[in-house]
Amino acid sequence: MANFRQHHNFKGQTRLFPHQQLRSGYQRINRQNLEDSSPVPAKELLELFGKLHSRLVRRSGLYLLQPANFDKNRTNFHKMPLKVTYVVSDNHSLDHGIYDNRNKHIDKATKINYIMYEYFVDIWNMSHEVVVTNEWGQEFHPSKLYYKGLLGDLCHEKADAAGTVMFTPTERLKYFKFLVSTTKEMSLHFIFRAPPLPYSHNLFALPFDTNIWISCAIVLSLCGLVIWIIMSWEAKVASFAANRQMHNENAASFLDIVMMQIGVVCQMDYFHEPRSTAGKIATFSLLLGFSYLYNAFCARIVVLLQATANNLHDYKALYEAKMDMGVEATSYNIYYFSHPNSRTNEDYRKLIYQKKIAPNNKFLPATDGMRLVQNSYFAFHVELTTASDLILATFNNQEKCAVRKVNSIFKEDKPYLASPINSTVTEYLMIGFHRLFETGVHSRESRRRFNKLPPCRGRNSAFISVGLIECYFAIEIFLIGFTLCLAFFLLELASGVYRKNQST
Hints:
Elements: H1 2-5, E1 7-8, E2 14-15, H2 18-35, H3 42-52, E3 55-59, E4 62-66, E5 80-87, H4 108-124, E6 126-133, H5 149-155, E7 161-162, E8 176-178, E9 188-193, H6 210-236, H7 238-246, H8 254-265, H9 277-305, H10 315-320, E10 324-328, H11 331-338, H12 346-357, E11 363-364, H13 366-375, E12 378-383, H14 384-394, H15 397-401, E13 403-407, E14 418-420, H16 426-438, H17 441-449, H18 472-503
Parallel strand pairs: 5-6, 5-7, 10-11, 10-12
Antiparallel strand pairs: 1-2, 3-4, 8-14, 9-12, 9-13
Helix pairs in contact: 4-16, 4-17, 6-8, 6-9, 13-14
């Protein structure tokens, strides 16, 4: 029996079978712990643990114990499934929209992350298992304490990782581990075509600056005063008075001089003419000077009719402008615009939603919203690279030159991929995605799938029609004058009737 339990090598030394080696190791360690309380060296424990997970290998007729190697990189998961949850708004996004670049503007974040996870599972020899949902599930149920949608899949361990990026509010930190941001090119903005200047300015006041307008008023007043003095002197000269009587003209009053100055400014005819040489020189100088000003004014108006307003630099100015507004119909936009939250400027969120969005339900698909931007003066809250794809596909060069963007009402926050807080694959996710970043794989895919706003390649000449908005100030002057005229006419009529009644 003893001969069976022992075997001799070629040098005649006694050698134990593997199970005897393990038993001997355990006995030695236990004996050491009983004799003294000194800890067992970590290296010795690691060697023994390796023998526990070792296997027998037959070499030269002998069975030898081959310990497990714990120093080797563990990059082989033997096709272990990695469950990844994605937010998908179009059912065909994961069928044919990943590699053929069809409908690039739909589910952009999901598509690029799907490709990143395909590379990731190849690194670790995993299998990619897809979990699909149609919303992020932003709201946290206060009584049942759970999320739904993508966040719910992570909380309830239906998925190991998120395949669509999410915002990073502080209340989510105790439930999720935020990993990497794979969509740094994506951001939310209000996109609109810059409206013509009359939408925000009085077109007829823009050709000259304030100093020129003040100078023109001073020159006109001085010339009018000089002409009034000269024509008042002419009324007292007998020769000039006889000439007026021959042509059945009355002496010019102060209001007649005012009407004469208005006629000069507007390049129109006037009734009273000076008879003296001094009066004619003053009138000629006034006519010649204001003819140049009139030509400059008209030329500048033509340029301003083709110009666009560049004073809309934030959503506050955009709200005050005479423009309709809409929002891309994604679940996070609908939630954050419709509910009070800490991620937005609450005052303007409420104003924009109640005055601009809610009355006509302006939550629109990206294609419909950008079509309104193209065909009218409409501000659309949309993801920037999504808008860039549609602008490149549908806008002409003149429309591209008019495209503007302002920041969203959302607080600036880069969205991240996430995993459950205690997930066992978190470290592997971090290592794998950083490897994709370092090797340039992510950069290549980002350049292929994310477009910037197209540049303006020179402005083409275009015919600009003049509408009511451009003529608003002129129509306003006409209506004010007509109202005053009617009011004074009624006053004079009433005064005449009163005097007639008093005389009788």
